[in-house]
Design a protein that fits this description.
With 1221 residues, the protein is of the alpha+beta class. It has 20 helices and 63 strands. β49 and β50 form a beta hairpin. Keywords: Membrane, Signal, Transmembrane, Transmembrane helix.
C-alpha cells in the first residue's frame, strides 16, 4: 500500500532524528501546484524535493484512484521515460480528462533508489479540479509598476489589462465561434488587516471602467501603506482560483509646508510690510487660519552694537501674539515708519500646521533699510509659485507696485527717485543675469505699477527668478541693455535689487520618446497590434499621459500634420484617428483597417506640453476569405479586455472590411443546372458587434463618443439594404400634371392623375435600429450626468460631428425601414439631437459658433449650428438672428445658447399623419430647420414672443409649371399639440419670386421645426370688374409698320384666346355636377343681403379637422395623447371634442341595444369587412403618362418618377389605392 504524503514525511523525519548527517538519507516529496486548479489550466505535480544521495533514483509516474484519458496516460508515460521530477499537465490534456475525474485528480510518484537495499517509496498527491473544461480563466496583467510611492496630494490611478489566456482555444469543447464575454474584474483593498472588496471599503473609486481604479487626491493618509488586488474571472460563481495582480502603494510622509516671503529687498523709514505666502501640498485647500506663524528678526551689526530688531514693537509681549500684522504671529509682518534704523536686517518666519506636531518650515528674507522717505515695493505672488514650474517656451510676465497714498507725520512718502528695470536671473552660483526684460511704469488710482513683459524661451530644466533692479542713475539702468554675455548679478555696480519673485523651473516638453508596433504586418481582423512607447524624459515622468493616434500613410511627401490650427485642412483631428485617449499607460492595442498606417504617440505633461513620436510604416492587409467567424473571434478577443476603446476599434475595422464583403453575391451552377448563390448574411456580422457595444456603452465617456459615432455609422451601412419608397405628392401638384395638360387634344376629359414620387432609401432590421438608438441614449446620458458635476466636460466639434453622422443615418434608416415600432424611434432620435447640442455647447466659446455637418455627397444631409452668447449679447447667425429683446428683458443677465438643425432630403417628422394641417405638402426634399434656445441652461419654450423671429429657409423651385398654374409658397411649423404641420403662428415675410433661393418665415414661438412649403395651384382668372389703366395720349404718331405689327399681334392673340377659352369652357363642362331643377320661387327668395353674407375663414383648419374627427369618434384619446400632444399639453378643444364623441357613441350603443337590428356588412375586394353605411369605391387603374417637362423639384431627388403605386413604411403595396381593381 503506498504511503500518503504526511506518512512519508513523518517516516523520514523520524529517520533523520535518529542519525547524524541526515541529509545523506533519501527523501520523497510530491506537491500539486496549485492545489485547486481550473479544469482548463496548467497543473504541475512537483517532486523536486525528492533526492537520492547516490544520485541514481528512478521516478515512475502513475495515476491514483482515477480513470484517465489516453492523452493523460501519454503524459505520465513521457514523464517516466524522461525520468522527470515534475509532471506538467497542459490545459488541453487536463480539460479532456476533467469531466471523468469527479473534481479530484490523484497522481502517484514512485521513487526507486540506486541502493538495492533500500525499499522503493511511493507518494500520492492530489489536486481539486473545478470550473468549466471548455473555457479557461482570463489572463490579467498590470499596467505600469505594481509598487509605487506617491504624495497624498495626487490621485491614485491603477489599471490592469485582461485578455483570454494564450491556451484558451485549446480547451476541450471550446467553440471558436463564441467568446466568453467580458471579464469580471473585482478589486480588493487591504489596510493593516484583512482583504475586503473595494466597494465595501472606506475608499471611493472614481473610475467607471472595471479595469481601472481611481482614488481621489487627499484621500489616503500621509505615511500610510496600502495593498490593492485585482482578480479576474468569467464565472463569479466558480470556486476556481482566479488570476490576480497585486499592487503595493506607499503614501509619502507629511511634506513640509511651502513658504515664500513676499516683500521688498530695500525699504526706507516710511515703513514696509512682509507677507508669508503658504501652501500645503497635502491639503486640497489651505487658508492662513490653518497655520501657525512665528516671525523673527535680527540686525546685521558690528560686535557691541545694539540689535535694532530686538526693539521692534512687534515683538514686545503685549503685541507679539497679534495676527493682524502689528504683532509677530500672523501671516503678515508690518513694520511701522521709523521702527527700524538704516542698515541690513534679516527677517524669518516659521510656519507650522495647526493642530499637528510639525517641525515647521522656515523662510528667510533679507531687508536693507536706507535713510530717506519713500514707499517700499510690493511684489504679488506669481501664478507659478505653487508648482515652481513654468513653460520654457515663454518667460512669464510679472509686476511690482508702489503705494503712493501713504504719508508719515515726519514727512511725505513718495515713490523713490530711482530708475527700475526688470531682469530675468538664472539661479546659479553666483546668480547670472540672463536677460533684461522690457519694463513699463503705469500710475493709476494712487498706485504705481512696475510691469515686466514676458516672452522669449528659456533653457529647459534650469531655475530662474525675476529681479527688480533699481539705481539712482538712469544711465546705469540704460546701460543694462548693452551688457555683453551673462554677468553675475553681484558684479553690477551702482545697482541694487529692489524685489525678487519666487524661483521656478523652466519646464521642458517631454522628449526622447520612442514607439514600437508589434508585429510589423498583419491582418485587419485577425491581428491585434501592440503599441508600446518608452524612453520619455520629463521633470515629472510618472505624470506623463500618452495619446495614441493612427494616420493613413501618405506618399513621398511624408506625414504633414497641423497640431494647433483646427481650421487647417491638415489638422490632426481631420486626418488622423485617435484610438486611445490620453492615459498614463504607455501601452495600447490597435485594431487597424486595411491599408498602410503610421502610429503616432503624443506625450502630455501636467502643464499641457506635448511632444510626438511616430512609428515605422505599418502594413495591414484585408482578409481575402472574410467570414462571420472572423467577426466573432475578434469580438471575443476584445470583449475580454473590458477596454471600450479597443472594442470600438474592432467595430470600426469590422465595418470597413464587411461593408463590401456582405454585398458580394457569388453564384454558381451545379451539374444539374441549378444555380446556387452564396452571400455572407449581414445580420450575422452586425448583431455581435452591436451586442458587444451595448455591453461597453456604460463605460464610454465623452472622449470615446467620436469613435462610437464612426463605429455605428459604419455598422448601419453594413446592415443597410437599398429600397425604394413612394411618396404621394398629389396635394402639392394638384391637377397641374393632369395628362390633359400635356395633350394637344382639347377633348381630353381624363380626371386628375395622382402624383407619386419614388425615393431611394435604405432598410435596416428594426432590432438593429433600436439597439443603435439605445446605445446613443446610454452614452449621451452619461456625458450629461458628468456635465452636471463638471461643467467643463463636453464634446469637441470633431467628436460631435461623428455623432451627428450616426444620428443622421439612423434617422435615414428609420424613415426607410418597415415596421410600426420604428415610428416611436423618431422622437428618440430627435431628443438625441437636442442632447447632442447640450453636450457640445460647453466647448463652444462665447461669441462664436460651431458647425457640424454630414458629408455633402450623400442622398441626405444634416447640419447643426451651435452658438453661445454672453449675458447681454445677441446671437447673429446666417439664416437666424436671435435678439434678447424677443423674450423681453427679464433674462438679460443669462447666457443664451442657440441650436439650429437643418435637414435636407431627410424628414425627422416623417411619422406625422397625413390629412392633417399641411402635412401633405411636405415633400421628401423639403428643407426643415429646427430651432432650440436655452437661457441660463434652461430650454426656452415661448409661444408669445414680443416680436416675431425671422428664420431663413432654403427653397427649390419646381420647373415645368404649365400655363394657367402658379406656385404658391408658404411657411409651416410643426404643431406638437396637433401632431401635424400647420401654418398657424407663422407667416411669410416677403414675396417669393423665381429668382429667390430662400424665403423668410416669421414665427411667434421660440422653438420648433420650420419648413418652406409650396403647392401648384390654378392661376386665378382676371377680375372683369377691374378697369384697365388709362392710356396716355401720344402725339408723336404711329408709323404704318407699327400699325401693321399691332394688327397682326392682336389677331394672333384673339385666336389664341379663343382656343384657350374653348378649352377652359370644355374643362368646366366636364367637372360640373349634374344640374338639379329648382323652383324659381326659391331663387327669387334670395335677397341681396343673403348673397353678401359669407362664412368667415377658418383660422386653424388643422385643429378643426382633428376636432371633427374626434367628435365623429374616429380619433381616440389614446391616439391624441400619442400623436397630438406637445410640451404645452393637449389643446382644450380636442378634449371637449373627445368627450362629445364619447357621448355620441354611448347614445348610439343604447339605440342599438333596443333595436337589436344587425347592420348590413359589405366586403371589399380584399375581403375586409366594411359597415353597411359605407360605400366601397373601386378605382380604375389608368395608363401611365410621361410629362413633357419634368419638374426640377422632383429631379433633385434620387430616382424619381411618376408612379401608379404608393406605399409607406407602415403600409404594404397591396393596401395602396392604385393596386385596387
Amino acid at each position: 500500500m503506498p504511503l500518503r504524503g504526511l506518512e512519508i514525511w513523518l517516516l523520514l523525519a523520524c529517520g533523520v532524528c535518529g542519525q547524524e548527517g541526515g541529509s545523506s538519507d533519501p527523501a520523497v516529496h510530491l506537491v500539486a501546484i496549485p492545489s485547486t486548479a481550473h479544469a482548463c489550466s496548467e497543473l504541475v505535480f512537483s517532486g523536486a524535493g525528492s533526492h537520492d544521495p547516490q544520485g541514481g533514483a528512478q521516478f515512475f509516474w502513475s495515476l491514483g484512484a482515477n480513470s484517465a484519458s489516453d492523452a493523460l496516460l501519454a503524459v505520465l508515460s513521457g514523464a517516466t521515460a524522461a525520468n522527470s521530477r515534475e509532471l506538467t499537465i497542459s490545459p488541453s490534456v487536463l480539460s479532456q480528462t476533467a469531466p471523468s475525474l469527479g473534481g479530484r485528480l490523484e497522481v502517484e510518484l514512485t521513487v526507486a533508489f540506486a541502493d538495492e537495499n533500500r525499499t522503493n517509496l511511493t507518494v500520492v498527491a492530489f489536486a481539486n479540479i473545478v470550473g468549466s473544461a471548455s473555457q479557461a480563466q482570463p489572463a490579467i496583467f498590470p499596467v505600469g509598476p505594481t509598487q509605487l510611492t506617491m504624495p497624498r496630494s495626487e490621485r491614485l490611478e491603477l489599471a490592469v489589462t485582461t485578455e483570454e489566456a494564450s491556451f484558451a482555444l485549446d480547451c476541450a469543447g471550446r467553440d471558436p465561434r463564441r467568446g466568453p464575454g467580458p471579464a469580471n474584474v473585482t478589486w480588493y483593498h487591504s489596510f493593516m488587516g484583512a482583504w475586503q472588496p473595494l466597494t465595501s471599503s472606506e475608499l471611493t473609486d472614481l473610475a467607471v471602467e472595471p479595469n481601472r481604479v481611481s482614488i481621489g487626491a487627499f484621500t489616503l493618509q500621509a505615511g500610510s501603506s496600502h495593498l490593492l488586488k485585482a482578480e479576474a474571472a468569467f464565472d463569479l460563481q466558480s470556486a476556481a482560483p482566479r488570476p490576480a495582480v497585486l499592487f503595493k502603494v506607499d503614501v509619502e510622509p507629511m511634506p513640509p509646508v511651502k513658504v515664500h516671503i513676499l516683500g521688498p529687498r530695500r525699504a526706507a523709514q516710511c515703513g514696509f510690510e512682509l507677507e508669508a505666502e503658504t501652501w500645503d501640498p497635502v491639503a486640497a485647500t489651505s487658508a492662513p487660519e490653518d497655520f501657525q506663524f512665528a516671525w523673527d528678526c535680527f540686525s546685521v551689526v558690528e560686535v557691541g552694537e545694539i540689535d535694532a530688531c530686538a526693539e521692534l514693537p512687534n515683538f514686545i509681549p503685549a503685541r507679539s501674539r497679534r495676527t493682524d500684522g502689528s504683532g509677530a504671529s500672523g501671516p503678515k509682518m508690518r513694520v511701522a515708519a521709523g521702527d527700524l534704523p538704516a542698515g541690513l536686517h534679516e527677517f524669518s518666519v516659521t510656519v507650522r500646521r495647526r493642530g499637528l506636531r510639525d517641525t515647521g518650515t522656515v523662510a528667510i528674507s533679507s531687508m536693507q533699510v536706507i535713510a530717506g522717505l519713500f514707499t517700499a515695493v510690493q511684489v504679488p505672488f506669481p501664478s507659478y509659485g505653487y508648482s515652481g514650474i513654468n513653460d520654457a517656451d515663454s518667460v512669464p510676465p510679472t509686476s511690482a507696485s508702489v503705494d503712493l497714498r501713504e504719508t508719515l507725520s515726519i514727512g511725505s512718502c513718495t515713490a523713490p527717485a530711482v530708475s527700475w528695470r526688470w531682469v530675468l536671473v538664472e539661479d546659479a552660483i553666483p546668480p547670472l543675469l540672463d536677460r533684461v526684460l522690457p519694463t513699463k511704469l503705469v500710475a493709476a488710482e494712487g498706485m504705481l505699477q512696475i510691469q515686466a513683459g514676458g516672452g522669449g524661451t528659456m533653457v529647459p530644466g534650469r531655475r530662474y527668478y525675476h529681479a527688480l533692479l533699481q539705481s539712482s542713475f538712469q544711465d546705469i539702468i540704460d546701460a543694462l541693455d548693452s551688457v555683453d554675455g551673462r554677468p553675475a548679478l553681484g558684479t553690477l555696480s551702482g545697482i541694487s535689487v529692489a524685489a525678487a519673485t519666487p524661483k521656478f523651473v523652466a519646464d521642458q516638453s517631454p522628449s526622447d520618446g520612442a514607439v514600437t508596433v508589434t508585429p510589423e504586418t498583419g491582418r485587419s481582423l485577425r491581428t491585434t497590434f501592440l503599441v508600446n512607447t518608452f524612453n520619455w524624459t520629463d521633470e515629472l515622468p510618472l505624470d506623463l499621459k500618452y495619446e495614441f493616434i493612427r494616420f493613413e500613410a501618405v506618399g513621398s511627401e511624408g506625414l504633414q500634420v497641423d497640431w494647433d490650427d483646427p481650421t487647417s485642412s491638415r489638422f490632426w483631428r481631420k486626418v488622423g484617428h485617435c484610438f486611445r485617449p490620453p492615459r498614463h499607460s504607455p501601452k495600447a492595442f490597435l485594431q487597424a483597417p486595411p491599408g498602410q498606417h503610421l502610429v503616432v504617440v503624443r506625450a502630455w505633461d501636467p502643464r499641457g506640453q506635448a511632444s510626438v513620436v511616430a512609428s515605422e510604416l505599418l502594413v495591414v492587409d484585408a482578409e481575402s476569405d472574410f467570414s462571420v467567424a472572423d467577426v466573432t473571434a475578434l469580438i471575443a478577443r476584445t470583449e475580454v479586455t473590458n477596454d471600450p476603446s479597443q472594442l470600438l476599434q474592432a467595430a470600426i475595422a469590422i465595418a470597413v472590411v464587411a461593408d463590401p464583403a456582405v454585398k458580394i453575391r457569388t453564384c454558381r451552377t451545379d451539374s444539374f443546372g441549378t444555380e446556387r448563390c452564396d452571400q455572407i448574411p449581414s445580420e450575422e456580422v452586425v448583431r455581435p458587434v452591436l451586442n458587444s457595444l451595448s455591453t461597453a456603452a456604460p463605460f464610454m465617456g465623452s472622449e470615446l463618443l467620436g469613435m462610437l459615432g464612426i463605429a455605428l455609422e459604419g455598422t448601419i451601412k453594413v446592415a443597410a439594404e437599398p429600397s425604394l419608397q413612394q411618396v404621394d405628392a398629389t396635394k402639392v401638384f394638384g391637377d397641374s400634371l393632369n395628362p390633359g395638360n400635356f395633350s394637344e387634344d382639347d377633348n381630353n376629359t381624363e380626371p386628375p392623375e395622382p402624383v407619386f414620387v419614388n425615393i431611394s432609401r435604405i432598410q435596416v432590421l428594426p432590432e438593429f435600429l433600436m439597439t443603435v438608438t439605445q446605445l446613443l441614449t446610454t452614452t449621451q446620458q452619461r456625458v450629461l450626468l458628468d456635465q452636471a458635476s463638471d461643467p467643463s466636460i463636453g464634446l469637441d466639434g470633431f467628436a460631435a460631428e461623428e455623432v451627428l453622422k450616426a444620428l443622421a443615418i439612423t434617422m435615414w434608416a428609420i424613415q426607410g425601414s418597415p415596421g410600426a415600432d420604428l415610428v416611436s424611434l423618431a422622437p428618440k432620435v430627435r431628443a438625441l439631437i437636442d442632447g447632442l447640442g447640450a453636450a457640445s455647447l460647453p466647448k463652444v466659446p462665447f461669441g462664436s459658433e460651431q458647425r457640424l455637418r454630414t458629408p455633402p455627397d450623400l442622398s441626405y444631409h444634416a447640419e447643426m449650428v451651435l452658438a453661445k452668447a454672453a449675458p447681454g449679447s445677441n446671437i447673429e447667425l446666417a439664416g437666424v438672428n436671435i435678439s434678447r429683446d424677443l423674450l423681453g428683458r427679464r433674462l438679460q443677465s443669462c447666457e443664451m445658447d442657440a441650436q439650429i438643425t437643418e435637414w435636407y432630403n431627410l424628414n425627422p417628422l416623417f411619422a406625422a399623419p397625413a390629412g392633417f394641417g399641411v402635412t401633405d405638402l411636405v415633400l421628401p426634399n423639403t428643407t426643415i430647420k429646427g430651432l432650440f434656445l436655452r437661457l441660463c441652461g434652461q430650454p426656452v419654450l415661448s409661444e408669445d414672443l414680443d416680436s416675431p423671429l425671422e428664420i431663413d429657409i432654403d427653397i427649390v423651385h419646381p420647373e415645368g409649371v404649365q400655363m394657367g398654374y402658379v406656385v404658391e409658397h408658404l411657411c409651416a411649423v410643426y404643431d406638437t399639440g396637433l401632431g401635424a404641420w400647420s401654418t398657424d403662428g407663422v407667416a411669410l415675410k416677403d414675396a417669393v419670386d423665381n429668382e429667390s433661393s430662400q424665403l423668410t418665415c416669421l414665427s411667434n414661438q421660440s422653438y420648433g421645426y420650420f419648413a418652406a412649403l409650396y403647392r401648384v395651384v390654378r392661376e386665378a382668372p382676371p377680375d372683369p370688374t377691374t378697369s384697365p389703366p388709362p392710356v396716355e395720349d401720344d402725339d408723336t404718331g404711329v408709323s404704318v409698320e407699327v400699325i401693321l405689327g399691332i394688327v397682326i399681334v392682336v389677331a394672333l392673340g384673339a385666336i389664341t384666346a379663343g382656343f384657350k377659352a374653348r378649352k377652359w369652357y370644355r374643362s368646366r363642362q366636364k367637372v360640373e355636377p349634374e344640374k338639379v331643377e329648382e323652383p324659381e320661387e326659391e331663387e327669387e327668395e334670395e335677397t341681396e343681403t343673403d348673397s353678401e353674407v359669407s362664412e368667415p375663414p377658418d383660422p386653424d383648419p388643422a385643429l378643426t379637422k382633428l376636432r371633427m374627427a374626434a367628435e365623429a369618434g374616429r380619433l381616440t384619446a389614446k391616439e391624441i395623447l400619442a400623436h397630438h400632444a406637445g410640451p404645452t399639453g393637449i389643446r382644450q378643444e380636442l378634449i371637449w371634442a373627445v368627450d362629445k364623441g364619447y357621448e355620441a357613441k354611448l347614445r348610439e350603443a343604447r339605440k342599438k341595444a333596443f333595436k337589436n337590428i344587425p347592420a348590413e356588412v359589405y366586403h371589399d375586394s380584399f375581403g375586409k369587412q366594411i359597415p353597411g353605411d359605407f360605400t366601397v369605391v373601386h378605382v380604375k387603374a389608368k395608363a401611365e403618362f410621361q410629362p413633357r417637362k419634368p419638374l426640377k423639384a422632383l429631379e433633385t431627388l434620387p430616382d424619381t418618377s411618376p408612379s401608379t403605386m404608393s406605399f409607406s413604411p407602415s403600409e404594404s403595396l397591396e393596401n395602396s389605392p392604385r393596386s385596387q381593381p
